[in-house]
Amino acid sequence: MRKLVFLIGIIIFASGCASAPKKDYTKFNSANLHSILIVPVVNRSVNVDAPNYFLSTISIPVAEHGYYVFPVHMVKRILEDDGLSDADLVHSSSTEKLASLFGADAVLYIDIKRWDAKYILLSTTVTVELKYTIRDGKTGDVLWEDVRPVQYSSSSNSGGGSLAGLLVMAVNAAIEKAAPNYMPLAKQANAMAFTFPGPGIPPGPYLRKEDKIDQSQKKETAAANK
To answer: In whole angstroms, what is the distance from residue 37 CA to residue 209 CA?
Structure first.
């Protein structure tokens, strides 16, 4: 199942890259970011556990791009102690004040737009949709944003059109509906959103030398294929 989810994510990523408009990195590059503060996630879905689960997936992909990331649970606790226990309240607060509280160069806001599993006939479709926004810690200006929807359907792991196949589909759908696995989809959404060259953010100052070379080669290959 995990391999199928990964393949589905790659297909969605490839189609998204082909159709997504090119991003303007002028403000992002001018900001000269070294550190990014990830604040608590706003949950627009009906799943009350989504923010806590998702928050554990976001630090690594940002840090791997060469930026210092403040420990997300420490940030959440400090904001709560400062009277900002509600994520909506945090997102509506001044970006400049949030950044200055931690000494961050920028703030990353994330909205969970969807985090659900829907059962239709013999199939359960699990959907994760996330909106990412990075704002300048000094001006509050939007430096980068992206929206990533990722889906997995249990019908893609069926056993064919026979009676046995239908039974397999029914069992898979029931299992997925009872305990949907959102985490692989959330991690894929993060990976797709932050991939560079692509829709993601340019490499930061703490990126390892070998990773910078790899990203430079990818960028040259992408330019050559245009």
So the answer is: 24
Phi and psi of 45, rounded to 5°?
-90, 175
Structural domain of 88: 2-13+20-198
Cβ-based burial of 178 (10 A; exposed 0-12, middle 13-18, buried ≥19): exposed
pTM of the model: 0.78
* Residue range 16-35, pLDDT digits in tens: 444 567 899 999 999 999 99
Quick check: is 62 in a domain? yes
Alpha-carbon distance 107 to 142, whole Å? 10
Cβ count within 10 A of residue 94: 10
Looking at the structure of the chain, the number of domains it has is 1
**113-to-97, 164, 191 alpha-carbon distances in Å:** 26, 36, 17
The mean-pLDDT minimum among 55-59, 60-64, 115-119, 162-166 falls in 162-166
What is the CATH classification number for the domain harbouring 84?
3.40.50.10610
How far is residue 217's CA from residue 117's CA, in Å, rounded to a whole number?
39
Instruction: Count CB atoms within 10 A of the CB of residue 24.
Output: 10
